[in-house]
Amino acid sequence: MSITGKFKLSTSENFEDFMKALGVGLVTRKLGNKSTPTVTVSEEAGEYTIKTESLVKTSEIKFKVGEQFEELTADGRKVMSTMTQTAPNVMVHEMLGTN
């Protein structure tokens, strides 16, 4: 199985509680919890692009595996992120707050 492709969220558990713990506001939590985004993952010359599209917002990040990069999250937080590939079809996204 390839890590690249187009994927549609089918289920989500405890996402609203997760967003609440991050300090996301009520309206954004309600919209985010109802969203079923489509995620497109592509790779060119070792640089990955992850594009997340929903009715609420579209966002895109570009990165190289194992290299830290600056990211603005969907709810507007600035973080330093690192993506690590742990298996042929699995990536772990680590975010560290900058505040």
Description:
- The chain contains two helices and seven strands.
- It is globular, with a radius of gyration of 14 Å.
- The chain is an alpha+beta fold and 99 residues long.
- The N and C termini lie far apart (38 Å).
- A four-stranded antiparallel sheet has the order 1-2-3-4, with no helix packed on it. Strands 5-6-7 form a three-stranded antiparallel sheet, with no helix packed on it.
- Helix 1 packs antiparallel against helix 2 (26-34).
**Which structural category do the helix and sheet elements fall into?**
alpha+beta
The total of beta strands comes to 7
Average residue-wise pLDDT: 89
- Quick one: overall form? globular
Radius of gyration: 14 Å
Low-confidence stretches are: none
Distance between the termini: 38 Å
Sequence of secondary-structure elements: EHHEEEEEE
Across the major sheet, the strand order is 1-2-3-4
Residue fraction in strands = over 45%
**Contiguous helical run count:** 2
User: Main beta sheet, described?
Assistant: 4 strands, antiparallel
Indicate the percent of residues in helices. 10-25%
Question: How are the SSEs placed, and which strands pair?
Answer:
Elements: E1 5-8, H1 15-21, H2 26-34, E2 38-44, E3 47-53, E4 58-64, E5 69-72, E6 78-87, E7 90-97
Antiparallel strand pairs: 1-2, 2-3, 3-4, 5-6, 6-7
Helix pairs in contact: 1-2
Distinctive features:
99 residues; 4-stranded antiparallel beta sheet; 16% helix; 47% strand; globular
In short:
By secondary structure, the protein is of the alpha+beta class. It contains 2 helices and 7 strands.
